[in-house]
């Protein structure tokens, strides 16, 4: 006998844009977001018995997303997610959990001759500010806030050495390399008991976002990184230090490799590679640089031209909690 072990449903990819007009100053603020709303509760029979009585149509959820954006502030997104989620619990007694996710796009104010323009904006990158809220009758409000899609690169101040060297290793140790990644940082808040408690503490959300962004960029730029692992751990530690209401921090960082040009030749000459590994237990990529062309030197200290790799890439993750 099969059992429905879990179920949730709702509307995804609801695109919303809200314009706030400050009457006094004539300044507009634009918030564009993508909202997802998935409900859980006593909805089994819609799956198992074709009984739609408990089903709040996903189309109605889409309407609710617009209406709540009109009736309430959408900033910070943690507040909007809490308000929207609580609405479903207050309105439908058989709904027990509302899972709300919000992805906020960047619309940065244009400055003209150094002066912020009142109603014109530009998209300065793919970075988004995200919120995942689980609003539950039994467990209160659980929120994960995050910053995603922030692409960064440093052209020095990154090392990687001392790692396992064996018959599978070709990567040379380095004391100076290009480091690039796309920041995906998430901070999980201690459980918030109610929407009122969330409202009472509203300032912490913007503060944490600003702090997480500054800490990430400052640590990335200023540290002489021994590895992605250690650098991301330091970022987590610093965020926990400045945000006492945050319970844990996670990072997921792809290592976007930039290799010296000559390293490709090994892949093109597998027989040669085998021979080298027999001769030399520690096989490293053979830097051929560009010297075959008029003696151009382009490795080590002379490296200027690199080949950005689209894949494969490293992917390094961690979660740091309070002890
Ligand atoms: O910072 C790094 N961590 C790794 O685990 C790793 N592995 C690798 O090939 N390069 C790197 N860089």
UniProtKB/TrEMBL annotation:
Pathway the protein takes part in: Purine metabolism; urate degradation; (S)-allantoin from urate: step 1/3
GO molecular function term, any single one: urate oxidase activity
Protein name: Uricase
UniProt keyword annotations, A-Z: Oxidoreductase, Peroxisome, Purine metabolism
Gene Ontology BP annotations: purine nucleobase catabolic process; urate catabolic process
Stated family: Belongs to the uricase family.
Entry GO terms, CC: peroxisome
PANTHER family: URICASE
Enzyme Commission (EC) number: 1.7.3.3
Family matches, as Pfam families: Uricase
Organism, scientific name: Xylaria hypoxylon
Localization: Peroxisome
Residues reported in the UniProt entry to bind urate: 58-59, 160, 177, 228-229, 255
Active site: 11, 58, 257
PROSITE patterns listed in its UniProt record: URICASE
Chain's role: Catalyzes the oxidation of uric acid to 5-hydroxyisourate, which is further processed to form (S)-allantoin.
Catalytic activity: urate + O2 + H2O = 5-hydroxyisourate + H2O2
InterPro entries: Uricase (IPR002042), Uricase_CS (IPR019842)
